[in-house]
Specification:
binds adenosine-5'-triphosphate, six-stranded antiparallel beta barrel, alpha/beta, binds magnesium ion, 22 helices, 18 strands, single chain
Length: 641
Amino acid sequence: MNRSTAQPQDQMETRPEPIARVGRIVAVTGAHAIILLDVEERINIDAERSPEIGTLLKVDCTTSISLALVSALSSPMPSHNKSEQELRIVEVEFIGELPKDEHGRPKAFRRGISSYPSLGDIVYRASRSELSKAYACDSETSIRVGHIQQDPTIPAMIKIDEMLGKHFAVLGTTGTGKSCTVALILRRILEKNPQAHILLLDVHREYAQSFKGISEVITPDNMVLPFWLLNFDEAVEILIGQQPGRETDVEILRELIPMAKARYMSNQRRDKNGVTPRNGFDSSNIGVDTPLPFRTSDLTGILEEYIGKLELRGELAPYKRLKSRIETISRDPRYAFMFGSLTVQDNMSQVLARLFRIPVNGKPIAIVELGGLPSEIINVVVSVLARLAFDFGVWSAGRIPITFVCEEAHRYVPIDKTLGFEPTKKSISRIAKEGRKYGVSLCMITQRPAELDPTILSQCNTIFSMRLTNERDQDILRAGISDAAASLLEFMSTMGTGEAITFGEGVALPTRIKFDMLAEDEWPKSNTASFTSNWAKDLPDDSFLHEIVHRWRSQTFNPDAANYAVETAPAQVVVPQHAPIRRESLQPAAGQQRPGIQPPPAGFGQQAPQQPLRRSADLAQPAPAAGQQASLANLIKQFRT
Ligand SMILES: Nc1ncnc2c1ncn2[C@@H]1O[C@H](COP(=O)(O)OP(=O)(O)OP(=O)(O)O)[C@@H](O)[C@H]1O
Ligand SMILES: [Mg+2]
C-alpha cells in the first residue's frame, strides 16, 4: 500500500492542533489491529488524551484517512519501576475512513475501509476536525442529543430517518435517565419536524409535562376506543378470557360478531337519516376482524334468539355464559372508554385522527396515559393501539409515518411465553418485523432487556444503552454486535446518569455519549422521591388520604371523574366481582358530555376535496388538514373492503 510519508496536516482546522502520535501497528487480522504504544510519545501525551476504550485513532493513507476505535488496552510486560520500559498494547477495530479530495483534504466519513493498515503504519489520535467529520451527520435530517465522551466539543448526532425507519431502543437500569433521554430525543425530533405523528404509551403518567402545549394527552377518562375496533383475538380475551374449555364460547363469538356487524350495516342502510351507506360496500366481505361498528345489544339479541330455540336446550350454557359476560363487561365502568358511549356510531376516523394526530393541529404527539388502569385493561388498550398503528401504516401505504413509543416494553413483549397478553405481543411483533415497510416505527424502552422478547430487540437497529448492571442484560446486548461496540459495552455497569453507549444505524459510529441536560420543566415527572425531605415534613390533613382512596376506588386520577365514578359505582367496593351497574348511570343526562370526554375536533366528518398524502420528507411542513381527513376516510373504506 502506498502511504504518504508527510506528517498529517489538518487543513480544516483554523488553530493547528498538536499531532498526537500513539504508536505503530504490529499485528493485523482483518479489520482488527494491534498497536504498540510509543514509549517516548506516550510520555508526551498528557494523561487526559491517552487512548482509552472507544477513542478514535487514525492511520494516514494516500487516498484516505483510515479510522479505528480502541477496543482493548493491555500491558503484556508490566514494569515494576518507572525507569524500566514496558510494552503497552492498544487493540483497535478499523471502522471507516475519510476519503481525501484532490488536494489531500479529508472529505465526509464513510463506513468501511478501502485501504487496510499494514505492519509498521504509524497511528495517531484523530484530530478534532476528523472527529467532527466522523461523528457528523447531515444537519438537515439529524439532531443533536449530546456530546461524545472523547471530546465534549464534538456533538453526538442522530440520523432521524435511519433511527426511526428501523426502530430504536433505550435500555438502562431504573433511574439512569431513560425517560429523560426519550423526552430529549423526541423533543429534538419535534423541533425539526413539527408535523410528526408520535404515539407514546405512558404507563407512569410522566410525559405530559415534558410535552406541555404540543401533546394531546389521552387519559382513561377522556379516551374513546370503541369496543368494535377490537379484533377477534382481543374480543375473545375480554369477553371470554382464559377459562378452561373456552373453545365452544370462542366459536359462538366468531359466528356472532359478523352477524352483529351485518345487522348494524343493514340498519344503517335502512336509516335514511343515518350514516350514508358506503359506496360499493359488500356485506359479504364482513369478516370477524373487519373494523365495522356493531352493537353489544345486537350480540346479546342474537344470543337470546339462539337461547330461545328449542333444539339448543341441551347446549344453552355457553350461550348464557357469553351473554352474561358481554352484559357485565359492557357495564363495567373501567371499560367505559370502550363501551360507555350512548350510541354506537362510526367514529373510526375521529379515533384514528386523535391517536395519530391527523391533522397535527400543533400537537404532534399523543400521550396515552395508562397509569392506574388494571393490567388486563392496559394489555387490551396497548394491543388495540399497536394494531391500529400497524394497520394504519398498511392501509395508508406508509404515507404518514408513525412512531410508536412503548415504555416498560418488557411488560408487553416478554420473553417468557407464559407472561403477557398474546394479542399485544402479536401487534408489537408485527410492527417490529414489518413496520418499516409501512412507515411504522417502534421505540422500545426497558429496564430489563433480558426479559424482552429477543426478536423485538434484534429488530431495533439503533440502541441507546445506559447503565445496565445485570449480567444477563449485558450479555443480551453483547450478542451480535461488532467488537468495537462490544468493547464499549464494558462501560455499561459504570456509566453515570444521562450517559449511554450508542450504536447502530442511527448514529455514525458506536460511541459513548453524554446526553444534553433537559430543562427542569421538560423532565418527565419521575423524580426520585426524597425520603429525608418528605419525612421531615408534617403529614397533610385527612383530606389527602380521602382523595387517594377516592382515586384508588374510582381508578382515575381526574378529580372530577373520580367524584363521578365513585357516585356511580358504590357497589364495587362491596362486591368482589365487577358489580352490575345500571347502564343509565354510566350515561350523561341528555345534552351533557360524559366528564372528560372531548368533543371531536372541529372539522370532523366534513367532506373535502381529496389531496395526495405527504411523504416522510414533508413532515416538517404542515399538511392540509381537510385533505388528510378525506384521505383518512378513504383509507378506512379500503381497510374495510
Ligand atoms: N438528560 C437529562 N437531563 C436532565 N436530567 C436528567 C437527564 N437524564 C437523567 N436525568 C436525571 O435522572 C433522573 C432519572 O431519570 P429518568 O426518570 O429518566 O430515569 P429512568 O431510567 O426513566 O427511570 P425508570 O426506569 O425508573 O423509569 C431524572 O429525574 C433527572 O434528574
Ligand atoms: Mg422512566
